[in-house]
């Protein structure tokens, strides 16, 4: 199973989404940015590294949400979400097609990677519990 971490980066009342580029697996679908956890790397270190490599911004993971195991046709991933603080930098698209800063209420309108659908649901619950 491939272990993948993803970042729910919050700034003010919006959250950062990225669209995978055509060349990537699950191309053109939307995701929370992140990537595979390398052996001997902690989940948090891996997430900070991936976000820096892909978007050139600094994030600080502070809360792990419920991991999702999702079988794609040729491989299965464990997708582990973290709520993250935005710690600075300007987003650069080093791998993705595009990005959006989105209000939580608009999250259901995106074409998500299938593994992210329950994560979006849990995040919306987190948002509701803050009100
Ligand atoms: N990063 C990320 N990947 C996701 C999400 N949802 C989801 O199904 N995936 C899948 C797509 C890919 O099959 C896999 C992650 O691969 P990746 O291509 O982003 O990871 P990586 O940057 O470490 O990959 P690589 O360049 O080493 O191949 O997980 C998500 O929200 N974020």
UniProtKB/TrEMBL annotation:
Cofactor: Mg(2+)
Keyword check for Protein biosynthesis: no
Domain of life (superkingdom): Bacteria
Keywords: DNA damage, DNA repair, DNA replication, Hydrolase, Magnesium, Metal-binding, Mutator protein
Residues in Nudix hydrolase domain copies: 1-128
One GO process term, biological-process aspect: DNA repair
Database matches in PROSITE patterns: NUDIX
Enzyme Commission number(s) of this protein: 3.6.1.55
Reactions mediated catalytically: 8-oxo-GTP + H2O = 8-oxo-GMP + diphosphate + H(+); 8-oxo-dGTP + H2O = 8-oxo-dGMP + diphosphate + H(+)
GO molecular function: 8-oxo-7,8-dihydrodeoxyguanosine triphosphate pyrophosphatase activity; 8-oxo-7,8-dihydroguanosine triphosphate pyrophosphatase activity; 8-oxo-dGDP phosphatase activity; 8-oxo-GDP phosphatase activity; metal ion binding
Similarity comment: family membership: Belongs to the Nudix hydrolase family.
The name this protein goes by in its record: 8-oxo-dGTP diphosphatase
């Amino acid at each position: 199973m491939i272990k993948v971490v993803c970042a729910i980066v919050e700034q003010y009342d919006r959250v950062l989404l990225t669209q995978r580029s055509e060349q990537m697996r699950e191309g053109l679908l939307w995701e929370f940015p992140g990537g595979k956890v390398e052996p001997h790397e902690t989940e948090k270190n891996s997430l900070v590294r991936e976000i820096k490599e892909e978007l050139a911004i600094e994030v600080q993971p502070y809360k792990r949400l419920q991991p999702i195991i999702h079988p794609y046709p040729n491989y299965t991933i464990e997708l582990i979400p973290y709520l993250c603080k935005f710690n600075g930098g300007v987003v650069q698209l080093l791998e993705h097609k595009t990005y959006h800063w989105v209000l939580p209420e608009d999250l259901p309108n995106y074409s998500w990677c299938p593994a992210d659908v329950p994560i979006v649901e849990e995040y919306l619950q987190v948002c509701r519990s803050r009100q």
